[in-house]
Design goal:
With 410 residues, the chain is an alpha/beta fold. It is built from 13 helices and eleven strands. Bound molecules: S-adenosyl-L-homocysteine (SAH) and iron/sulfur cluster (SF4).
């Protein structure tokens, strides 16, 4: 495809999708069963009914995926009215939906303030692949960490996302991709997990999930609940830049798969690229990885390693990487650096990346090179950014055109 063809409206035009009528009441989405029960009792639902009501509401929210109380067919009209008076189950507003040439979708979502504050915007990315589809979910608006090569890191933190906002990214993606049963599917019909568009979820969007541990944990436990969304914990991966104490808690309290943004194998370089290393250096990080519950050859830890030209991509680095990972069941994900406006690094040459991958492979580690996805819509790793500092549209179109000219054949 030529760069001009790639610039066709279908590839680049954002679609305005949903209306912007914000409901600012508290949401029932993202509450644990206990919190849901408490919320119902507070609004006058009889104690003896609560367990059954929680079960019904849970089913409608997370198995059927409804977003309107009127669709709760086995709930009485009075109760639906009561719920509507006090709560909402509305989805966020889709400000923009962009579809890349490679099928990757990026949604810019806006959440209303619940209580005080102003609306926030975040990005969620869906990456379809042969045999699976991965949803890349954000945990914060911006990020307080300032990894030198990451676009999100240049956006100041606006705030942590709530459990509702984290989970709503999954609900909205399943809506848009047709992953929930429709209204005509008989109640009680089992919806098979196979064939779902969103088969995997990664906490690899904007923000550092382990700086928002409680909300991320609540959302992941609901996403993996067997009587609801039922995503297997083996298909949920949380990526961290290395917040060591919360790595232990992630293992003990959520049981999801772990990915570490490693990017450097010496403390001096990692201090610079991933500054949280100054607080939790490599030795502590690797100890936490060794202690991660359930790690085995069947459940390996993923180490993400962004390939930066002339910075961390030598064969000496590859050799040190093998040494560092000794004894840890690991898979190494090599990520070609994705440039963004103003970034000061370059991506390693393709031959260098291949030689690096080959070296690691010879040492017995899987070392897939992550194909950049959705670069034309700035949806690839490290390119997400939103809200206050979004690029002006003219700048963005110029940048997108440049990216397509450079990477149109990716
Ligand atoms: N904050 C978490 C979650 C973000 S995951 C973390 O850092 O792990 C996003 C992944 O993309 C991380 O491994 C991150 O280091 C990587 N990344 C960031 N900027 C990038 C860029 N410009 N090119 C390629 N990968 C990048
Ligand atoms: Fe934050 Fe992760 Fe980006 Fe670092 S790589 S700035 S931790 S989002």
């Amino acid at each position: 495809m030529t760069a001009m063809e790639a610039l066709s409206p279908a590839a680049l035009k954002p679609m305005a999708v949903s209306p912007a009528m914000f409901d600012t009441k508290p949401s029932l989405i993202g509450l644990s069963r206990e919190e849901l029960a408490k919320a119902l009792v507070e609004k006058g639902i009889a104690e003896r009914q609560v367990k059954m009501r929680v079960q019904q509401i849970w089913h409608w929210l997370y198995v059927r995926g409804i977003s309107d109380f009127d669709d709760m067919l086995n709930v009485s009209k009075d109760l639906r009215e009561l719920l509507r008076t006090h709560f909402t189950i509305q989805r966020p507003e889709i400000v923009e939906e962009q579809i890349s040439n490679d099928g990757t979708r990026k949604w810019l979502l806006r959440f209303p303030p619940r209580g005080a504050g102003r609306p926030v915007e975040i990005e969620t990315v869906y990456i379809p692949e042969e045999g699976r589809g991965t949803l890349c979910v954000s945990s914060q608006v911006g990020c307080t960490l300032t990894c030198d090569f990451c676009h999100t890191g240049t956006q100041r933190l606006v705030r942590n996302l709530t459990a509702e906002e984290i989970l709503s990214q999954l609900l909205l993606a399943r809506d848009r991709l047709g992953d929930f049963p429709d209204r005509n599917t008989p109640q009680g019909a089992i919806v098979p997990a196979e064939g779902r568009k969103v088969s995997n979820m990664v906490m690899m969007g904007m923000g550092e999930p382990l700086y928002n541990f409680e909300n991320v944990k609540t959302a992941l436990l609901i996403a993996s609940d067997g009587d609801g969304l039922a995503l297997s914990k083996r298909r949920i991966t949380l990526s961290t830049s290395g917040v060591v104490p919360e790595i232990y808690r992630t293992g003990a309290e959520t049981g999801v798969m772990l990915a570490i943004s490693l990017h450097a194998v010496r403390d001096d370089l990692r201090d610079h690229l991933v500054p949280i290393n100054k607080k939790f250096p490599l030795k502590q990080l690797m100890e936490a990885c060794r202690a991660y519950p359930g790690v085995s050859n069947a459940r390996r830890i993923t180490f993400e390693y962004v390939m930066l030209k002339g910075v961390n991509d030598s064969l000496a680095d590859a050799r040190d990487l093998i040494k560092l990972l000794k004894g840890v069941p690991a898979k190494i994900n090599l990520i070609p650096f994705n440039p963004w406006p103003g970034s000061k690094y370059e991506c390693s040459d393709w031959e260098t990346i291949e030689a690096f991958a080959e070296f690691i492979n010879q040492a017995g580690y899987a070392s897939p090179i992550r194909t950049p996805r959705g670069r034309d819509i700035l949806a690839a790793c490290g390119q997400l950014k939103s809200d206050s500092e979004r690029m002006r549209k003219t700048d963005r179109l110029a940048f997108e055109a440049m990216m397509i000219a450079n990477h149109g054949e990716d």
